[in-house]
Amino acid sequence: MDSEFDLVTLGAGSGGVAASRRAAALGARVAIVEGRRVGGTCVLRGCVPKKLLMYAAGYADAFGEARGYGWQLDGEPRFDMAHWAAAKAAETARLEGVYRRLLGESGVEIVEGQGTIEAPGVVAVGGRRLRARRILVATGAAPVTDSIPGIEACATSDDLLDLRALPARAAVLGGGYIAAEFAAMLARLGVAVTMCYRAEQPLRGFDAMLREAAAEALAAAGVELLAGRVPRALSRIDGGLRLEFDGGDAARDFPWVLNATGRRPNSAGLGLATRQGGGVIVDDELRTSVPGVWAIGDVTDRHNLTPVAIAEGRALADSLFGPAPRRVDLSRVASAVFMIPPLASVGPSEEQALATGRKLKIFETAFRPMRTAFIGGAERTRMKLIVDAADDRVLAAHMAGADAPEIIQGLAVALSAGARKADFDRTLAMHPTAAEEFVLLREVSRVVGGGGGSSSAA
Ligand code: NDP
Fold first, then answer.
1. Which end of the chain is less packed: N or C, by CB atoms within 10 Å?
2. How far apart are CA 210 and CA 215, in angstroms?
3. Top-level CATH class of 151-261?
4. Termini Cα distance of the chain
């Protein structure tokens, strides 16, 4: 059976759904093809269930703090992963229902099954052929399973979020977003965690202050950090996995190991030109190498973040079916790592900003937050502003500490509007908050770059 559409989208994740709904709202006949559940990684296997597990893990600290504030809690609280998993399954099913309803109400036809691009303008799904002058690839990414020999035997974050019981001990391989977030959570949920990553600090690409804060926070949560040490190979043993290291380090056995060594675009078999690593190559207008085929989101492996995929999807639909073409500005993408406490950033790291040749004023502060200082906690909140010395413009804001993603999201608006340090300075503080420290930073910590050396002004 053949059907005619204006747009056929492959992949009903955040990006594909956003693009399809916007295109339909602009009058296009749209079909969206999905081989798994509607909702994609973010809603079903990523951001949403991950954050729900982070909320669960956060109670571990809250119980301890509550005692310091005078609460009498009898007995040791215990976490029931089966309870959480059932509640999570119900919530993701509800959200899938919402996505299906929104697509239906927008007039988008959901076609269940694995779609392949059979020829220009033709998508095959099972026995059905969908014809469209425009095809959008929004197929996302999946965990890498060949980064280390034997790693295919490990669990992935998808598996973790479906566990009914947690292991007593676990190794986490990798030092990126997923590794840092899940190591922090598992440690709170009572798992003895060992984290192995190949760099000196986790979270490559983030500002050095945040990377150091991440390592400190993980260590403070009891995570054993094996920096610069990843296994050469893994092998199955009775009751778990053996991690074999180079350089005479003893092998280590774990009952459960999380593979968090990255994700790979779902681009195989689409017939599109890809970069090394599988990212579909797109131009500024999100066109692939094949006429009539566009791509957005994680399958293009550029900024692998849900809001980017959604923004690209909507801009593309506007460009294809709206009155005027539109592009998304990806020059300042804010992001957060939902550790405990979390990290968040908008703008370049100090290292990246320095590489532009600019002279920079760096404003930094670190303090013990009121909530935990009250009970004698050692937790420290850190903040940094990177300011262009030439025109006083704030290039970046970085924070490690409670509520960092909420605070940085607000500052991202100021930075998008081109805020200068003087604008921060004339903003009155809201007291007592942690966020107020961002408008109270008066002393320059360092002046760096611009051809000169580093000078300490504080
Ligand atoms: P990342 O790319 O963030 O991290 C991958 C990690 O695996 C890095 O530490 C990398 O080391 C390491 N690694 C890669 N290959 C090997 C290898 N052969 N041996 C040892 N270590 C290896 O990927 P994630 O899987 O953590 O997350 C995927 C993407 O999903 C992220 O890039 C992010 O865009 C998105 N995401 C966003 C979240 C958020 O916004 N909060 C949360 C989770 C995911 P090295 O750094 O040395 O290369």
1. N
2. 9
3. alpha beta
4. 72
pLDDT computed for residue 457 by the predictor = 52
Instruction: Report CA(233)–ligand 1 centroid distance (Å).
Output: 19
Q: Give the residue numbers marked as catalytic.
A: 431
The pTM for the full model equals 0.96
* Exposure of 381 in the CB half-sphere (CA atoms within 13 A): 22
Instruction: Give ligand 1 pocket residues (Cβ under 6 A).
Output: 147-148, 174-179, 181, 197-199, 204, 230, 260-263, 304-305, 335-338
Given the CA of residue 157, which atom of ligand 1 is nearest to it?
25
Average pLDDT, the chain: 96
CA 263 to ligand 1 centroid distance, Å? 7
Residues of the chain with pLDDT under 50: 458
Q: Of ligand 1's atoms, which has the minimum distance to the CA of residue 175?
A: 9
**Protein residue with least CA distance to atom 22, ligand 1:** 261
Non-local (6+) Cβ contacts of 173 within 8 A are: 148, 151, 154, 179, 196, 197, 230, 231, 257, 258, 259, 260, 261
Q: How far is the CA of 176 from the centre of ligand 1 (A)?
A: 4
Under 8 Å between Cβ of 311 and 303? no
Question: What CATH homologous superfamily does 341-456 map to?
Answer: FAD/NAD-linked reductase, C-terminal dimerisation domain (3.30.390.30)
For tokens 């002279």, the residue is 359
What is the SS3 assignment for 240? strand
Cβ contact 223:184 at 8 Å: yes
Ligand 1, pocket-test mutation among 50, 261, 299, 330, most atoms within 8 A of CB: 261
* Homologous superfamily assigned to 2-141+264-321: FAD/NAD(P)-binding domain (3.50.50.60)
